[in-house]
UniProtKB/TrEMBL annotation:
<dbReference type="InterPro" id="IPR011050">
    <property type="entry name" value="Pectin_lyase_fold/virulence"/>
</dbReference>
<dbReference type="InterPro" id="IPR006626">
    <property type="entry name" value="PbH1"/>
</dbReference>
<feature type="domain" description="Right handed beta helix">
    <location>
        <begin position="87"/>
        <end position="212"/>
    </location>
</feature>
<protein>
    <recommendedName>
        <fullName>Right handed beta helix domain-containing protein</fullName>
    </recommendedName>
</protein>
<dbReference type="Pfam" id="PF13229">
    <property type="entry name" value="Beta_helix"/>
</dbReference>
<dbReference type="InterPro" id="IPR012334">
    <property type="entry name" value="Pectin_lyas_fold"/>
</dbReference>
<dbReference type="InterPro" id="IPR039448">
    <property type="entry name" value="Beta_helix"/>
</dbReference>
Length: 315
């Protein structure tokens, strides 16, 4: 019996030692942060490291400087319709220009003194809006994907990249430069709209680039520059109209309705997304261009602990 007990003790001690060794060797678990209006958004984002996730919740956030991202965390908003980062013409936007593999979703950035959102290689930018910025709306290095993004009323280009990027259902309107500009091309643009920009609509200089099922119209210079429009691409008035969340909904009779490359379901733009002012989901062949959140964004009520914190700080 004593021998058996000693063996059990030896096994338990060995198990504890092994567990301790694995804990030391294992990487630190990724952290999750929640940012609410009034929190120090710059410090929280800049303090995050690779693998962390930062949830930026509904409301307007006012940084006082450029937000410089380190590592490659993920920044996720509640919805671009209600999660707004307003730089008030002070900071230079969200700068992740030195970070590969960065992800940002569901955010609106406005009034940056420079570019709006800057990303490096192999990044994902999804369901984001940038407007009123002093540089490009979106500035990208290469081999990144931008999906369902809207860029308008910026001083320079709506979307600007070095090469090799993919744009899906993006809209660039009324920017001071081109709608979409690529220095070396090799881009793929699908279901995109470029309207009313001061330079070209699509300025993509490379024969390996593809502009498919897209629309360029009313841009001051050339509609398609550097690369010819491909399958399904047109140059006609998209018939934008003002709706509950912005100015870039589509009339039912728009030539961009049901003229995209694939079904809205396959592209992840069916349930919850629309180009229709009444909020009807885009469930058939996808419409060209940016899709608004049909429900205006997710429920983003504050947790009790945060409410109590705000009440206490105001006493």
């Amino acid at each position: 019996m004593v021998i058996i007990m000693n063996k059990i003790k030896s096994i338990l001690i060995m198990s504890i030692l092994l567990a301790s060794i694995f804990a030391l060797l294992s990487p630190v678990s990724a952290a999750t942060y929640h940012v609410y209006p009034g929190d120090d958004i710059e410090a929280i984002i800049e303090g995050a490291t690779s693998g962390d996730t930062i949830y930026v919740h509904a409301g307007t956030h006012y940084p006082t400087r450029t937000i410089t991202v380190s590592g490659h965390p993920s920044i996720i908003g509640d919805s671009p319709s209600n999660t707004i980062i307003d730089f008030n013409n002070i900071g230079g936007g969200i700068d992740a220009s030195s970070q590969d593999g960065f992800t940002i979703k569901n955010i609106t950035v406005k009034n940056s003194a420079g570019h709006g959102i800057l990303v490096d290689d192999e990044c994902l930018v999804e369901n984001c809006i940038v407007y009123g910025c002093g540089g490009d709306g979106f500035r990208v290095d290469e081999e990144s994907t931008l999906k369902n993004c809207l860029s308008y009323d910026n001083v320079d280009d709506g979307f600007n990249d070095e090469e090799g990027c993919t744009y899906i259902n993006c809209t660039a309107a009324n920017n001071g430069g081109s709608g979409f500009y690529s220095e070396d091309g090799e881009d793929t643009l699908v279901n995109c709209i470029a309207v009313g920009n001061k330079d070209d609509g699509f300025d993509i200089w490379n024969s390996d680039s593809e502009i498919l099922y897209s629309n360029a119209w009313g841009n001051s210079d050339v509609q398609y520059q550097g690369t010819s429009p491909g399958t399904g691409s047109i140059s006609v008035d998209p018939f934008f109209m003002k709706g509950p969340l912005g100015d870039f909904y589509l009339f039912k009779s728009s030539p961009c309705v049901n003229k995209g490359s694939d079904s809205a379901i396959n592209l992840g733009l069916s349930t919850g997304f629309t180009t229709n002012v009444k909020g009807a989901f885009d469930t058939g062949t996808v419409d060209m261009g940016y899709h608004y959140s049909s429900n205006g964004g997710s429920d983003s009520s504050l947790p009790i602990a945060k409410i109590l914190e705000i009440i206490k700080s105001n006493q």
